[in-house]
């Protein structure tokens, strides 16, 4: 293990980094004393700047352990971790964690702090002025769609679970970190709240472009949110690391297929917008219900089934521009099936 220094130059670089950074894990291993097998063994991965990578796998496979080694909540036994080319194992762990956002399922808000005080924790540790901190708190509350005038002075117990999760995300973003680690952040919420939080976070990520590692046990969540998905088995062995579309179309082995489960084609349809299909002419006999061209083909298929109509009209900006039927949806599914990547690509 390298000698630990503060290395303020690297930390300053991280703090000032706009958008995301690349993360390289090279042969990371975690061996706990008294255990015969490692929790994580010889794990290597490169994550591109601004990429949202999902870790999915069964309980005990080491996905959370792997993620926590990046900000050194857990110290690796061997291997190297580099962020933007800098070795994080040479940094002071406490200082490092102040420059990496971290969101957990249990949220971890301080119950006796107001919402504003919870969000301000890291900026205060970094020595921000009161004015700068207050402005950042207000900005972030607006970003996660919580009115500062209503929520800033409330306490966590006065918020719903979904609202507390939004505050947890805001707190992780407070110091504008280039890296965010998210450990099943929406797992404790009900399905409707979870879907809303996922949509809000994807909207937010489109604007902020952070490099994000997101741990989940929910493959549907991984498909919906990830730029790439790492399907992990025991000791964080990577069974497949690829885009959602490629994994659904070409699972690497039976283990990956077991994660996909039934309905792979329907799951793939959720990744393809209506504009990805060949749209026919507007149909005057189609039902009043329409589908926007940016909506998924899965939703278009649902609408066709619900209405029982042979075709539904497609809109762009509210204006009808064409129509679509089940044959067009099936053709789009076949046309977008990606070829299997070459080994090592």
From TrEMBL:
Keywords assigned by UniProt, alphabetized: ATP-binding, Nucleotide-binding, Transport
GO molecular function per UniProt: ABC-type quaternary ammonium compound transporting activity; ATP binding; ATP hydrolysis activity
SMART domains per record: AAA
Keyword match Nucleotide-binding: yes
EC number: 7.6.2.9
Top EC category: translocase
Domain ABC transporter: start-end pairs: 23-260
Highest taxon, organism lineage: Bacteria
Protein family according to the UniProt entry: Belongs to the ABC transporter superfamily.
Protein's recorded name: ABC-type quaternary amine transporter
Protein source organism: Microbacterium saperdae
């Amino acid at each position: 293990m390298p000698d630990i220094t503060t290395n303020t130059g690297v930390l300053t670089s991280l703090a000032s980094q706009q958008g995301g950074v690349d993360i390289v894990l090279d042969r990371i291993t975690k061996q706990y004393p008294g255990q015969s097998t490692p929790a994580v063994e010889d794990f290597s991965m490169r994550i591109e700047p601004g990429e949202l990578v999902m870790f999915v796998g069964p309980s005990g496979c080491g996905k959370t352990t792997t993620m926590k080694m990046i900000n050194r909540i857990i110290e690796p036994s061997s291997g190297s971790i580099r962020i933007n080319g800098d070795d994080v194992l040479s940094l002071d762990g406490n200082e490092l964690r102040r420059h990496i956002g971290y969101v957990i399922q249990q949220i971890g808000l301080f119950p006796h702090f107001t919402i504003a005080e919870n969000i301000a924790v890291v900026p205060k540790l970094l020595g921000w002025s009161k004015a700068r901190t207050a402005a950042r708190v207000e900005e972030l509350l607006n970003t996660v769609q919580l009115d500062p005038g209503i929520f800033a002075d409330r306490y966590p117990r006065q918020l719903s679970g979904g609202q507390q999760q939004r505050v947890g995300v805001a707190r992780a973003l407070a110091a504008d970190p280039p890296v965010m680690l998210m450990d099943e952040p929406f797992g404790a919420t009900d399905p409707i709240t979870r879907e809303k939080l996922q949509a809000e976070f994807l909207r937010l990520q489109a604007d902020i472009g952070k490099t994000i590692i997101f741990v989940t046990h929910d493959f549907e969540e991984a498909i919906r949110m990830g730029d790439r998905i790492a399907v992990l088995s025991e000791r964080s062995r990577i069974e497949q690391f690829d885009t959602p579309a490629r994994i659904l179309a070409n699972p690497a082995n039976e283990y990956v297929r077991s994660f996909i489960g039934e309905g792979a084609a329907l799951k793939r349809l959720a990744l393809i917008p209506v504009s990805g299909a060949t749209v026919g002419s507007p149909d005057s006999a189609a039902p009043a219900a329409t589908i926007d061209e940016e909506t998924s083909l899965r939703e278009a298929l649902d609408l066709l089934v619900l209405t029982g109509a042979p075709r539904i009209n497609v809109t762009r900006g509210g204006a009808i521009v064409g129509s679509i039927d089940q044959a067009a949806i099936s053709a789009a599914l076949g046309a977008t099936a990606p070829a299997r990547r070459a080994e090592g690509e």
